[in-house]
């Protein structure tokens, strides 16, 4: 189990946590367990941040994250509190892990059986089966060393990387270069490269701008497996909230914060309805830019608007939540639909922002695994198309894109949904901005680019306001539910370190 620094110095303090996403929930649990009095203020009507749920007419959708990856991180988190994930939810390993439709008519399933996957790779390219094994060995090494020395350890200064222990363990890691460079060393076939890189969507990056170290995600995918928790990711949120309540955390929903004032030992956090919450410390799990530019006095900001404009944001998303009559036999619980050349789509996210004409996208059908998420005789399905943050988002654009996406699904998966839809909701750039105060409507936070990784991400503590801390996807270790869980630990450790 991952070791957590001594947090006992937090005993007797009071902390307000702004935002109840995974980072905020995690931080709250660590602080409360250490003896702090913790109050969580959540803007929306439910906890979980982007892991909100939409419930309507017998359908229940996970509105945000839907992949349960890196089960060891969840085990470590609950294990720290002498619990296990199974105390709160059960897991089902998916088989296949996911299905991929390539738009040239090809289809492939990735499954729990590694030998079967090896044969699939070999069928595409002679020698690729052995290279698949080599790639996963490298990914496993990167995962083991990367998690211990670069994910669970918050290295905020360049000198932190001069430590002999880091140098010794970093030897042989893929610390330099992009994912595209790394994958090309193993596979020539473009489809095999795509299979190894699809997880970049979860990191908010592209093959040419994401560090090669993140090949560790292939170990997560192929060796550790893809799971579904009872109740979806919302069930995990419920488990974390239950844990927080057991530890004494006080939760307030529908409590949007509009001001943070004060300093260590004397903070006041004000909500839009005029309530005031006094505390020794404040932790923000809200969007980092929103916290600095909208909640703090101008002279207390670490960064100005030029800084935030210069950042590379992870994609936003065009989402359709669909209740559909009947089954969708061609689709699996997780399905990816990929152009044979996806460079144009990535260019329209990062280089020349525009709505992609030939999109790569993801389909989730949790009713394949969980019969409680849709009425009998119906399927629960959502579509996610990664798009550039900050795009114009109008009703006319959404309607045009709806037709394009539904036509594309019919053409490339064989599932024509258009005359079977009984419930439909969309969610896009403006909704991410309105519901989550997300900068430029990003669905994830700061992208994991080569210039926005590790110490190059914003810090867990404010340099301008003593006693103000940050957690979540803008900080280290970064984007994704497991990373936000770990961010909560790193924030609590940073608080204890600075108080000691």
From TrEMBL:
Entry-linked InterPro entries: Amino_oxidase (IPR002937), Carotenoid/retinoid_OxRdtase (IPR014105), FAD/NAD-bd_sf (IPR036188)
Single GO molecular function: oxidoreductase activity
Domain Amine oxidase: 23-495
Official protein name in the record: Phytoene desaturase
Keyword Cell wall biogenesis/degradation found: no
Superkingdom of this protein's organism: Archaea
GO biological process, one term: carotenoid biosynthetic process
UniProt keyword terms in alphabetical order: Carotenoid biosynthesis, Oxidoreductase
PANTHER family in the cross-refs: PHYTOENE DESATURASE (PTHR43734:SF1)
Pathway, per record: Carotenoid biosynthesis
Keyword Oxidoreductase: yes
Pfam families in the cross-refs: Amino_oxidase
């Amino acid at each position: 189990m991952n070791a957590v620094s001594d947090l006992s110095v937090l005993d007797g303090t009071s902390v307000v946590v702004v935002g109840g996403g995974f980072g905020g929930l995690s931080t709250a649990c660590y602080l409360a367990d250490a003896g702090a009095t913790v109050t969580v203020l959540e803007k929306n009507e439910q906890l979980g941040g982007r892991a909100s749920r939409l419930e309507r007419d017998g359908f229940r959708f996970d509105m945000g994250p839907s992949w349960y990856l890196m089960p060891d991180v969840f085990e470590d988190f609950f294990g720290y509190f002498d619990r296990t994930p199974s105390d709160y939810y059960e897991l089902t390993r998916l088989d296949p892990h996911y299905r991929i439709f390539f738009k040239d008519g090809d289809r492939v399933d990735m499954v729990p059986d590694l030998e079967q996957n090896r044969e699939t790779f070999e069928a595409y390219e002679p020698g690729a089966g052995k290279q698949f094994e080599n790639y996963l060995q490298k990914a496993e090494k990167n995962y083991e060393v990367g998690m211990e020395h670069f994910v669970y350890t918050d290295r905020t200064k360049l000198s932190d990387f001069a430590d002999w222990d880091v140098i010794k363990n970093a030897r042989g890691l893929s610390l330099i270069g992009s994912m595209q460079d790394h994958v090309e060393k193993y596979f020539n076939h473009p489809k095999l490269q795509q299979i190894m890189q699809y997880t970049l969507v979860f990191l908010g990056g592209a093959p040419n701008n994401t560090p090669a170290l993140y090949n560790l995600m292939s170990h997560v995918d192929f060796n550790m497996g893809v799971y579904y928790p009872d109740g979806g990711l919302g069930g995990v949120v419920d488990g974390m909230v239950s844990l927080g309540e057991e530890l004494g955390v006080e939760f307030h929903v529908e409590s949007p914060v509009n001001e943070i004032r004060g300093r260590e030992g004397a903070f006041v956090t004000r909500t839009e309805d005029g309530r005031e919450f006094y505390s020794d410390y404040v932790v923000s799990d809200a969007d980092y830019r929103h916290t600095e530019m909208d909640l703090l006095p101008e002279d207390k900001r670490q960064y100005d608007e030029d800084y935030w404009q210069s950042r590379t944001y992870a994609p936003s998303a065009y989402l359709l939540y669909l209740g559909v009559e009947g089954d969708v036999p061609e689709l699996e619980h997780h399905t990816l639909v990929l152009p044979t050349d996806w460079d144009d789509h990535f260019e329209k996210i990062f280089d020349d922002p525009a709505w992609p004409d030939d999109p790569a996208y993801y389909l989730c059908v949790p009713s394949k695994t969980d019969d409680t998420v849709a009425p009998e005789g119906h399927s629960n399905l959502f579509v996610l198309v990664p798009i550039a943050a900050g795009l114009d988002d109008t009703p006319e654009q959404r309607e045009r894109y709806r037709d394009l996406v539904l036509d594309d699904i019919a053409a490339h998966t064989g599932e024509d949904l258009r005359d079977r839809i009984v419930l439909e909701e969309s969610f896009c750039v403006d909704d991410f901005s309105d519901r989550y105060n997300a900068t430029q409507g990003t669905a994830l936070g700061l992208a994991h680019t080569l210039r926005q990784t590790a110490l190059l991400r914003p810090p867990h503590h404010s340099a301008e306001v003593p006693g103000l801390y940050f957690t979540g996807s803008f900080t280290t270790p970064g984007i994704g539910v497991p990373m936000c869980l770990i961010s909560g630990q790193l924030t609590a450790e940073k608080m204890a370190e600075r108080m000691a």
